[in-house]
Predict the 3D structure of the following.
Amino acid sequence: MNLFAELSLRGAFPLWLTIILVLVASVAAVMLYFRETVKIGLPRKIVLASFRIAAFVLLGFLLLRPTWVSEESKQRPRSVAVLFDNSESMKRKDQRLNLADRLRVAVAFDLRDPTLPLTETDGSSQAIEVPEQTPDKPSRLDVAKAIYRNAQLKLFERLATKGPVQMYLFGQRVRAISDTDLLEAWGASDSRTGVEDAVHEMLQRDENELPTAVVLVTDGNDNASTHTIEDVARECARVNVPLHIYGVGGSSAGLVQLKDFVTSETLFVEDVVQVPVRFRIKGFKEGTVELTLKLGNKQVGETKRVAVREGDDLREVLSFTPTKEDALSNQGRNSLNVSIRVRSANEVLTDELSKQVRVIDRKVKILVVEGAPRWEFKYLQRAFLRDRRVDVSFVMAEGDPRMMRAGPPFLPEFPTTRAELFAFDLVILGDVPMAYIGPEHANWLREFVGEGGGLVMMAGRTHAPADYVGTPIYDMLPVEVAATRFPIDSNKRPSEYHPVVTPAGDRFGMLTLADTPDENKKLWRELPGFYWNYPVTKLKPGAVALLNHPKEKTLDTPPEPMPLWAMHHFGKGMVLFVGTEETWRWRYNESDKYFARFWGQVAYQMGLGHSLGSKQAHLALAQPDSVLGETGQVHARLFNADFRPLTQAKVTGRLERLDAKTGDDRFSLVTLEAVPGQPGDYMAALPHDRVGRYALRVDAAGEPTTMEYRVSLPPDHESAPNSLDEESLRRLAEPSGGKFYREEDLHAMPDAIESRSTPFTERREKLLWNAWMILAFVALLTCEWLGRKFSNLS
């Protein structure tokens, strides 16, 4: 249907000038003919002049470049936009754990009728068998390409009947591709996937250029889109462009990964050891999880079996009881190994982690010396007496003499000989007068710590540490203080405060009151706070603060947060200063859950060095989880042979990739650099450039220390194990007016797409300055010339 047509003049000469030129030429032609000397008739003159005038008129018309313009309204079919996922996740080879998933592979590779159901629906007892030629664990990309080539399905040929098929590859961006180049260019090479963004880009066209439908071929694992599923689905419905999505991939991803487990470095014979385990499972809808502990090559405890459930941070607790044989084997040093096995259908996936531990067949011998009984002492006494791993004795400087002479666990007085004192592993000094200890016993304590014993001073309001300033015991403390006395009774009610755990405190196990770092940080914020602390003027060189006051500062320049608890090495032993007396408040509504755990950990870490030897290197990761692509950090606390903090600028460690394959680089060097102003503290960056298990080994004063860790993929990484995200794809397709399809449904996709057309106007322009016009001009001139010849005109 023609809308309109018109003649358009597009010449360089304006119309008025052309008319004048034609008129002048025409008048001149007439005058010339009437002035001819040859006598011819008037009719002949008029005819010959008319030929000349017609030629001039035609020439003027051609100079105006006449163009015939017409517009016509028509309809054309809308296109079908097909977007193929080109991200790296399409290279994943799925487990295909169930029969339906294996049959889907057969459908894709043209080995099974695509219209047949995956299960018997007619009551037939005949089992469905997977064709023998069906590939085992093909990649998602191979399955999608097989669908593209499928001769029975003819999916894309049938889609072409609904409109011109426009093909695109998408990942981080969308790019058009021809059907002849598709299979070669489709290599699943993009490192990110933006499913929603790709669809949204298709909707940003002019209203008349929108496709009749968008077909997505993807596994649905989106990690780059800025638009949400709901927003894109609503926009598709608004512009009436339905999404028809073919989901590629298996129903399960089959990921099993041990993330971490918690255990003490020292285990005690006949003590029940609880081992919290964190693990990750993806892609298993059913099956059994088996968790097993091994000490060395021997299984310990019973295998724990639980039903499969999916999650990124699943947890179970294993337990076992070390035996005397474990303490004798390899001098008690061994690896504690946790393994996980997931069984589902015919698939079995496993993973394991190990840590070095030591099993000892002895108790930590503790001497607690206190002045007058206070709340901290009363609850500490109960906690230690209940702990099977310690052998504790108590001395009360201001206690009831009859109770002191009643026998164990009480001693009538401080050990009277050096040998009696050295029989203990740890001495805890409470608010005891220095006069009760005396100069000789103070020197014994100094020698005791220097030879590897542990010393804890719990500050008090009356004597400790005020009485000890200037004594051998004060020389051993990790902090400097002034002799300050506190009134027992005061009308001023102090304010509650919540202490701040320092980075060093995070790394030392004695402040670990929960099973994971995140839980531990949360717990410290929620524990009942303190009201009192003994003021510290500064840390001594080489000492580390474990717990700081949130507001108070030291006398350093510039001022530093005031340490509440601090520790350092003195000789071969360790000294801990506890500047509070209120950890008993943690028992509120929790009994001994946190109080006993804290003091138990203090006892093991401070006391075991006396009999087992102190470690000259301590290694800890700055982050609980090591993730590919993120630079990690390791913190080291290193000492020399005399257990003094190392002062050299750099220390070299060796990093081993435990699961390296033959031909891969297995070892690399890591340089640990000293932390300015903190003798003995070192930091190093760890390159998390490959996933796998690693072990960092550092030799300090000839004693090797090893820390194992694992680098994992982030959950949204393209190469991270994941299954087809069917739920998200359904949420995207169905509100848009489209559908979600698996291989068994694809035969119905073309029929579900409605052909649509869009109106358009076709504009045509025909230039009249053509060969026929030139021929007409020549014909007029020729006619005039012939007429003149027949009239004997020159």
User: Anything to note?
Assistant: The longest helix spans residues 42-63. The radius of gyration is 45 Å.
